[in-house]
Specification:
It contains 9 helices and 17 strands. It has 3 domains: about 160 residues, Pnp Oxidase, Chain A (Roll); about 35 residues; about 140 residues, 3-Layer(aba) Sandwich (Aminopeptidase), CATH 3.40.630. It is of the alpha+beta class. A 7-stranded mixed sheet has the order 11-12-13-14-15-17-16. The structure holds coenzyme A.
């Protein structure tokens, strides 16, 4: 690798291969012509496995040296983030993996069936079919007929370019630039960079508390949010699954974790990004209330790129009017014990 600073752990490379919707596989055929194929692949028994018809070009790769590649783009950074005039600093942050080796063929019908079942679980996680089992007469013929190619994972090179070449303070400034730009994917890129390399908190994520603020939570945190919110008066009768799905599907979802990485605060918004937004599921865990965390979460959410340009932002509350008034919300209408509050930013309706 030209710049070793970008080489990273093969554990990450393995994850990229596991997550990849498709992989690219290249080899030279019997006549020396280069061939490039796009395949679905899964990792089974520490081998990268893919299926193909028993005749044809893909079959010809068995016994040949191949190179496989998969990548995950994180964010494209404009030159102007780094230099007012020169185009040269424009760059893309990404994670990628390359795997080399000789393609083998899996012969055992039982192992072939396991690879096919793993492919089904990856691409049809909802199931709905009989498990692929070589002993089942409905699958026996097809399992026998398909060729399952495989590649060992030992010659792997994993690369991550996520700002690790920048001084920590410059990286922190880059997070501010991404937050201000707020293009689709920028908030997720901020969190990818922070997860990858320790970075001083930029001002928009500072709390002054032993708490870490997140401007985008990944979907794995949705179950934790559901646990946090389960039992709140506005979620009575709503299942944890629904609460978790609501968080996964929200265009803006911010949160806070304590020193043990446990989720202790969360707030989300649904929004059209221009006119209207609704704030929902604002919650701070009891031990952290009264320390200013709720206000920081709301400030972060109101400044979120999908919310900051909205003219009118609504929410509903029973007991926390005073909290929201301090953030500029005013009561609109009441229904029973619940009050609708509006933050009217006044730039068009
Ligand atoms: C409401 C809630 C999110 C506030 O979070 P928090 O971290 O305790 O709030 P903060 O410490 O940031 O408080 C900021 C300010 O709002 C005030 N405030 C907080 N909760 C308030 C409430 N329920 N009513 C009136 N004022 C409130 C605080 O006194 C503080 O004012 P100050 O700066 O003058 O001292 C939190 O108490 C909570 O999760 N409650 C249970 C769930 C809930 O009711 N969520 C809101 C549903 S709409």
């Amino acid at each position: 690798m030209r710049r070793p600073i970008f080489e990273t752990s093969n554990q990450l490379g393995r994850k990229i291969l596991e997550r990849a919707h498709t992989i690219e596989l290249a080899f030279a055929d019997a006549t020396g012509q280069p061939v490039l194929r796009t395949l679905h692949a899964v990792i089974v028994d520490d081998l990268l496995c893919f299926h193909c018809a028993p005749v044809g070009e893909k079959t010809a790769m068995v016994g040949r040296q191949v190179v496989v590649s998969a990548h995950e783009p994180t964010v494209t950074l404009p030159s102007t983030f780094f230099d007012a005039q020169r185009a040269c600093p424009a760059t893309t942050y990404y994670q990628s993996v390359q795997l080399r080796g000789t393609v083998g063929a899996i012969e055992s019908h039982e192992r072939k069936a396991r690879v096919l079942q793993a492919l089904m679980e990856k691409f049809q996680p909802q199931g709905g079919h009989l498990p692929v089992d070589a002993g089942d007469p409905i699958y026996g013929t097809v399992v026998g007929a398909l060729l399952i190619g495989c590649l060992a994972l030992d010659q792997m090179t994993t690369k991550a370019r996520l700002g690790q070449d920048l001084p920590a303070n410059r990286r922190s400034q880059l997070l501010e630039q991404l937050w201000q730009r707020g293009a689709p994917g920028d908030v997720q890129a901020i969190e990818s960079i922070r997860r990858f390399c320790a970075t001083p908190e930029p001002a928009f994520l500072a709390t002054g508390l032993p708490i870490k603020l997140w401007c985008a939570l990944d979907s794995q945190r949705a179950d934790a949010a559901a646990v946090l919110l389960d039992g709140t008066y506005w979620n009575v009768g709503i299942s944890r699954q629904q609460i978790a799905d609501a968080h996964r599907n929200s265009v803006a979802w911010v949160g806070a974790t304590d020193g043990t990485e446990a989720l202790v605060g969360s707030a989300r918004a649904i929004s059209d990004g221009a006119k209207h937004a609704h704030i929902l599921d604002v919650f701070v865990a009891a031990p952290w209330r009264g320390a200013g965390l709720g206000r920081r979460l709301l400030e972060l959410l109101l400044d979120h790129p999908r919310v900051r340009n909205c003219s009118r932002i609504w929410l509903r509350t029973r007991h926390a009017d005073g909290f929201y008034r301090q953030l500029g919300f005013a009561p609109e209408t009441s229904r029973g014990q619940t009050r609708t509050m509006l933050l009217d930013r006044g730039h068009g309706r």
